[in-house]
Specification:
By secondary structure, this protein is mostly helical. Helices cover 93% and strands 0% of the residues.
């Protein structure tokens, strides 16, 4: 009987430690999601600026008011900004995966509490 009690107490302590670790991971996932959201917003603003700049440079290049190099630079900056938006979207997707992990972790916490109140 004492052995079973000791085992139950050890399981409970492990569950509590697991809950604490999970709660820390949840906080970390939320912070990462906030960062990913901010990075996406920044990338989208930067892309909008580079797109506008490229459109202006196309007009100037068509009127031979700028060099091929200046136009190519604008095109390159536009393409980089577009890629950055893609990267930021991928990071947002990753943060959604972390949020799903958070929900699963909460479910495990509730399960652990039901077993070891």
């Amino acid at each position: 009987m004492l052995k079973e009690l000791a085992e139950a107490q050890a399981l409970h302590a492990a569950a509590v430690a697991g809950v604490q670790t999970t709660e820390f991971k949840i906080i970390q996932a939320r912070k990462m999601r906030e960062v990913a959201h901010s990075m996406l917003a920044r990338a989208q603003v930067e892309y909008t600026l580079k797109k506008t700049t490229l459109e202006r440079r196309k007009e100037l290049f068509g009127a031979t008011a700028i060099t091929q190099e200046q136009f190519d630079e604008a095109q390159n900056q536009h393409d980089i900004a577009q890629a950055d938006v893609g990267i930021a979207k991928a990071k947002m997707g990753w943060s959604v995966t972390l949020e799903l992990a958070r929900v699963r972790a909460r479910w495990r916490i509730l399960s652990a509490e039901a077993v070891c109140p």
